[in-house]
Amino acid sequence: MSIKKAAAVALVAALGVTGLAACGTDKGGSEAGKTDQPAPKTVTLVSHDSFNASKEVLADFTKQTGFTVKVLKSGDAGEAVNKEILTKGSPQGDVFFGVDNTLLSRALDNGIFVPYEAKGLDRVPAAFQLDKEHRVTPIDSGDICVNYDKKYFADKKLAPPVTFDDLAKPAYKDLLVVENPERSSPGLGFLLGTAARYGDEGWQDYWKKLKANGVKTVDSWELAYNQEFSGSAGGKQAKGDRPLVVSYASSPPAEVLYGEPQPKVAPTGVSTGTCFRQIEFAGLLNGAKNPEGGKALVDFLISKKFQEDMPLQMFVNPVAKDAALPELFTKHGVVIEKPETMAPGKIAEKRDAWIQQWSSLVLK
Questions:
Q1: Among 131, 175, 188, 248, which one is least packed by beta carbons within 10 Å?
Q2: What would the mean pLDDT of 308-331 be, rounded to a whole number?
Q3: Does residue 139 carry a pLDDT above 60?
Q4: Alpha-helical regions (H) of the chain
Q5: What is the CA radius of gyration of the chain?
Q6: 40 and 15 Cβ atoms separated by less than 8 Å
Q7: How far is CA 347 from the centre of its chain?
Q8: Which of 72-86, 150-164, 344-358 has the lowest mean pLDDT?
Q9: Quick one: pLDDT at residue 38?
């Protein structure tokens, strides 16, 4: 939910390890695989397609632990989680990264992870630790928010929207593109944000207003941001005509970093009253062939070295308290002081029904 997607413009998170597995507290390693045999020298990380990490950081992990990381990308977040559910007990790898708070209950209820308390977890605030059994470890956070094309609104002499309410106003008719929450993690986060803002019943009336105001829905973040959105580099090339898109608060720094030539000011902005907090997790897979390497990798994911590498690789925020943000983030990013949030239990209870209701309401 997590921001690097495709051309590197969104948010998500990652992979790593700081010490040997013995440094962590194992609360269920026997379920993850046999530990009485010599551990393989390769540890496999299964992830959504947006995973990225610098070669230097992964090489440092290998130097510290003797394990080489193999990354297996498995589609978008929802698709990747579903594949692991289907292969439960005989997973594709050792560690899974990329399940976020919108899909966490689905993964936990299906038993794809085993408990493991990572070394260094005391450096991660309790607010990010949503599973008391430590079946998953928080790795990064970010905010799903509407982004706007600064040039469009300047040319039109129109103030960009700030809040959810603004998006339904006539001034912004036919300007917004969103992702289908059944297929897209940011799309689901935005739907949950509206439910958090307007309540269990009120969110449906809100979406009726958005539909009447010309909201456009596409299947993926890549299509929305790099094809439909007029403010992104990809959208400009594709002649996108929607100046409002559901993306991330960290998308503007990505537009600066990958701009050619690199702009001094981000060409896109963030509607700060439209945000939903996303937290991404990693976990040791049930049935992992290399559980010791997997534990080491989970440890490394929350190490200071990996956490500080992550923002410019995947455009997400570190969760470790001692990890500093790069200047690009502090200069061009936006800090969301009061994002919408929702308890994991409520997401688990309501998510699937809300998606069905949304589909009936918006797509028909």
A1: 131
A2: 94
A3: yes
A4: 5-8, 29-32, 55-65, 77-86, 104-109, 150-155, 164-167, 185-212, 221-223, 233-237, 251-257, 291-301, 304-314, 327-332, 344-358
A5: 20
A6: no
A7: 16
A8: 72-86
A9: 53
Q: Count of CB atoms within 10 A of residue 326's CB?
A: 15
Place of tokens 């050619």: 260
* Six-digit token string for 257: 């970093």
- Chain-centroid distance of CA 311 in Å reads 12
How far does the chain reach from its first CA to its final CA, in angstroms? Answer: 27
The conformational region for residue 319 under phi > 0 = left, psi -120 to 50 = alpha, else beta, is: alpha
* pLDDT at residue 12 in the model: 33
In the chain, the amino acid numbered 342 is M
Taking residue 302's Cβ as centre, other Cβ atoms within 10 Å add up to: 26
Answer yes or no: are the C-beta atoms of 53 and 15 closer than 8 Å: yes
Structure token digits, residue 302 = 């929350």
Instruction: Decide the pairing of beta strands 95-100 and 42-47.
Output: parallel
List all residues 6 or more positions away from 37 whose beta carbon is below 8 Å from its beta carbon: none
The two structure tokens encoding residue 303: 């190490």
Nearest Cα residue to 85 out of 70, 71, 65, 105 = 105
The percentage of residues in the chain with a pLDDT greater than 70, rounded to a whole number, is 89
The tokens for 343 are: 């308890």
| Cα distance between residue 135 and residue 283, in whole Å | 6
Going by C-beta distance under 8 Å and a sequence separation of 6 or more, which residues neighbour residue 112? 81, 84, 85, 88, 91, 96, 283, 285, 286
Rounded (5°) CA angle 4-7-12 = 10
Low-confidence winner among 36-45, 96-105, 268-277, 309-318 (lowest mean pLDDT): 36-45
- Token pair listed for 151: 């040039």
Distance CA 37, CA 309 (A): 33
Sign of CA dihedral 346, 348, 352, 353: negative
Tokens of 237: 């090339």
> What is the residue whose two structure tokens read 């997973």?
91
